Amino acid sequence: MDGSLFVLLLLSGLFWSSSALSHPYHYINVRMSWPEAQSYCRERFTDLATVYSMDDVNRLVNIVDAGYSGSVWIGLKRGTLKRWGWSNGENTTSQYYNWASGQPNGDEDCVSTYAGVWHDMLCSNKRYFVCYENSGYILIQSTKNWTDAQSYCRQNYTDLPTIHNSEQNNQINKILLSENYIWIGLFLDSWERSDKWSLFFRHWAAGQPSMSSGSGDCVGMSTADSGKWFQHRCDLQHPFICHGDLKLIRNQIVRLKLSCNGNCTLNDQTGILNEISKKLKSMGLEGESKISWRKSEGGEVFHQESNRTANLNNKCGRR
Ligand SMILES: *[C@@H]1O[C@H](CO)[C@@H](O)[C@H](O)[C@H]1NC(C)=O
Ligand SMILES: *[C@@H]1O[C@H](CO)[C@@H](O)[C@H](O)[C@H]1NC(C)=O
Ligand SMILES: *[C@@H]1O[C@H](CO)[C@@H](O)[C@H](O)[C@H]1NC(C)=O
Ligand SMILES: *[C@@H]1O[C@H](CO)[C@@H](O)[C@H](O)[C@H]1NC(C)=O
Ligand SMILES: *[C@@H]1O[C@H](CO)[C@@H](O)[C@H](O)[C@H]1NC(C)=O
């Protein structure tokens, strides 16, 4: 095929805007219960949306229709096990703990460090805390409960700290004040992602999740509260967000424009399709879908654009 042929793809909104990313999101503006929404997403995409970071939270908020201010289901629901996880989303499998002797000792879900050894305690306690960012650890000498400390770190730094090894534990210990319990990023969590992958990024609204059972086992993102999470009864009907590439593209028709520098011959229609296919792959859009040309009534695939556009596109333009 002529090497000077450029393929410009003009695709429609939904499919295109979010798809070049590693886990594209799709807002489905149809109200369903959480289990129905989960099946819908698993059939057509990968699963209900999983959220890994504040960047994802912001992306989710942005794809919900402006004007809708209710809750939108995401892929998190109450699980059956309680597991330790880190505020920044990391799980604790194969990781390091430095519990004080006799700790953890109760049904207390948040962790502080005292002279470098860890204690579980009630998340509602108000303590100093440590935040981290690229440049290191910062001790915040203002007392907050664990969730407020998390919000503070996420807004002003990166997050509450994750401690992977004794080196990091010692580094943090150096900036601590003696005689103080200080929040770190470890917490006990009983929520489970729809895909069962154990990553612990959570973005609860103030007062959520509620300790009492019966306040709902499924999680919705509130568009009115900058993407914070609330628990709801699973049978409530909400719009929802799926993630993953589209599995079933049935007759998705897109129009595209080809332009070239120099003498174009458009006889090699298969060659052009192969180019397009390569391009889709490079953008992470491959899949089992097949692409083909759609012929007009006269049996032709291409037609030339008006002179005006053709001139803009250099020597020849076709549509
Ligand atoms: C933390 O304090 C905020 C108010 O500043 C409150 O809404 C929230 O429920 C508290 N969280 C916990 C776990 O006590
Ligand atoms: C971020 O820091 C500022 C200044 O210390 C503070 O006023 C603000 O409340 C902090 N953000 C959060 C979410 O706590
Ligand atoms: C924990 O996280 C690591 C790295 O992010 C991942 O490879 C591992 O599969 C996770 N464990 C579970 C049980 O999901
Ligand atoms: C364009 O190329 C075709 C075949 O490669 C040739 O027949 C034709 O004369 C060329 N036209 C121009 C304007 O160069
Ligand atoms: C396109 O431009 C050429 C010369 O620039 C002119 O001869 C021709 O009539 C134009 N065709 C149309 C459809 O405007």
From TrEMBL:
Residues 25-132, 132-243 form the C-type lectin domain. The keyword Iron-sulfur does not apply. Gene3D superfamilies: Mannose-Binding Protein A, subunit A (3.10.100.10). Keywords: Signal. Pfam families: Lectin_C. Residues 1-20 form the signal peptide. It comes from the Eukaryota. SUPFAM superfamilies: C-type lectin-like. This is Si:dkeyp-94g1.1. It comes from Cyprinus carpio carpio.
